[in-house]
Design a protein that fits this description.
Length: 170
């Protein structure tokens, strides 16, 4: 998704969404199992409420952070790209010429502003996708800290055992 651009095909939008949906389905079941397996049966109902609350708050915070990055990066890119919109820029003249317009045309500023807005929004989305990708990379090692409980009540050391268990339980 960090390679999106304004000319992408619908397939480039569909496949990452499908992979994300598959990944979400494969991560939440093992995560929920890990969260409840060390609890006595009489505490599972209360733990379910706390787990769902934490998941909802975490999701809301992630969405809020992504929306904030998107909202702040859009005007930043708008200002950066807007610096290149000058009547003496040959790229501006070529872009307008391809649409049968000149710099002096009364509709030219509105068309340029619309294209500038599209480009700035796309760049802000790419920045937001980069933030999400790096967040995942930086937080993924926390999975290695999870301990699995054996039936005898002993905890299993983290890392390789937990990862293999995640693969077999999903």
């Amino acid at each position: 998704m960090t390679r999106y651009h304004l000319g992408i095909s619908p397939g480039w939008l569909l496949w990452p969404g499908m992979v994300q949906g598959l990944g979400m389905g494969m991560i939440f079941v093992p995560l929920t199992t890990l969260a409840y397996q060390s609890l006595p049966p009489q505490s599972v109902d209360r733990a379910a409420g706390i787990f769902n609350l934490a998941r909802t708050i975490g999701s809301s915070m992630g969405i809020s952070i992504a929306a904030t990055v998107l909202a702040r990066r859009t005007p930043t890119h708008w200002n950066q790209l807007g610096g290149y919109l000058q009547p003496f820029n040959p790229a501006v003249e070529a872009w307008l010429d391809a649409r049968g317009m000149t710099v002096d045309d009364p509709q030219a500023p509105a068309m340029l502003a619309g294209e500038l807005s599209r480009q700035a929004s796309m760049l802000a989305f790419v920045d937001t996708f980069w933030l999400i990708a790096w967040s995942f990379v930086l937080l993924a090692p926390l999975l290695l800290l999870i301990r699995r409980r054996h039936s005898a009540g002993k905890t299993q050391p983290p890392c390789t055992e937990v990862i293999s268990w995640l693969w077999t339980s999903s």
